[in-house]
Amino acid sequence: MSTAMNFGTKSFQPRPPEKGSFPLDHFGECKSFKEKFMKCLHDNYFENALCRNESKEYLQCRMERKLMLQEPLEKLGFGDLIGGKSEAKK
Amino acid sequence: MGGVWHPAWRRLFFCGWRSLRRGSAARPAETVEPFLRPEWNGTGGAERGLRLLGTWKRCNLGARDPAVQPLWRPKSSNSFRRAQEEEWRRRNKTVLTYVVAVAVGMLGAAYAAVPLYRLYCQTTGLGGSVVAGHASDQIENMVPVKNRIIKVTFNADVHASLQWNFRPQQTEIFVVPGETALAFYKAKNPTDKPVIGISTYNVVPFEAGQYFNKIQCFCFEEQRLNPQEEVDMPVFFYIDPEFAEDPRMIKVDVITLSYTFFEAKEGQNLPVPGYN
Fold it and tell me: How near does any CA of chain A get to the CA of B263, in Å?
């Protein structure tokens, strides 16, 4: 939250997340997927576009373990990855 | 001099010179003449004069009715004029009713403006406010703007009273607008008591904050960490593709997402920002 006492400048308005909050993964059930994703990021110099498959898998893990509400992957922006492995890393 | 109280003089004195026009057409000389005769010895006018002073208000040029005066009577006894005055009074009443109705309507509109404006903002999304029901369709259909690469850096802060170790697991990530991205923070509770934390976030620069949309994260809700527990906290977000079309954002290449954790007391309910 902005604590600068500027009168007249626009201050930051935090907004709640669209789908709410992630439940905490207390038991580390999806930790392996997370490690894969972090490794991919490290290898690709933190470019997100190349690691979207891994992030999709992490979210799928969460959905299976009831750590996230089930959502079709298109609604999460992974529409182009569903068409099979041939689409691959886009 | 009793002559002053002659009827004609009386009319002149009390009712003004106009009254004399309708009265006698006699010439002044003829009317004055009786008083100039030497045997005029007064008409006992002093008492009459005093009596008449009391009547000066009743200078009615028309009917000289000394009967009881009603509170309001038409200014003329002419029936046409009376009808016209009735008409005017009726119209005045209508106009007054309309004016009062407009005033009350304005007051009501002032009170209704707050929820109506809220509704308007939610449907049109003006002013950077949350657009209800828009988001998931937008994510499905948005096209990444591949030629605009933005670096998102991550920052983690903790309030002084909260003893967690809270840090991001990557310092930066390169995204393009329209592409969903995942990022991780890690938090560890090194104490041997369960601690509840609640977090909020900040996006710098402020103007870019309106394009930074979080699909899901860990903020604004209480998160409980057991003793010696360490968890990964993901943030799933995207940058609105309209970011690339905003002329004010041309120079913006780095966006910083900063989370701050505070300690929450048991049962405390923090209001979620937005509309309550």
Answer: 16
- Phi-psi sector, B133: left (phi>0), alpha (psi -120 to 50), beta: left
| Residue A9 included in any domain | no
- Closest CA of chain A from B274, distance in Å: 6
What is the Cα–Cα distance from B184 to A28, expressed in whole angstroms? Answer: 13
pLDDT, mean of residues B164-187 = 90
Assess contact for B228 and A32: CB atoms under 8 A. no
Give the pLDDT band (50/70/90) at residue A26.
confident
Q: Is A58 in contact with B130 (Cβ distance < 8 A)?
A: no
ipTM of the complex model: 0.80
Which residue is closest to B128 within chain A, CA to CA?
A13
pTM: 0.58
Average pLDDT on A11-23 reads: 78
In a domain, A68, yes or no: yes
Query: What single letter denotes the amino acid at residue B253?
Result: D
Number of domains in chain A: 1
pLDDT of residue B271: 60
- The domain of A60 spans 30-79
Q: Does B221 touch chain A (CB under 8 A)?
A: yes
Spatial separation of the C-alpha atoms in residues B193 and B196, rounded to whole Å: 10
Q: Is A75 in contact with B139 (Cβ distance < 8 A)?
A: yes
CATH fourth-level superfamily of B138-263 = Ctag/Cox11 (2.60.370.10)
Do A77 and B214 count as a contact with CB atoms less than 8 A apart? no
Q: Is residue A5 part of a domain?
A: no
pLDDT level of residue B174 (50, 70, 90 thresholds) = very high
Grade residue B11 by pLDDT with cuts at 50, 70 and 90: low
pLDDT at position B219 is: 82
B241: Cβ–Cβ under 8 A, 6 or more apart, which residues? B142, B143, B144, B145, B177, B178
Q: Is residue A21 part of a domain?
A: no
Touching A: B residues 78-137, CB under 8 Å: 128-130, 135-136
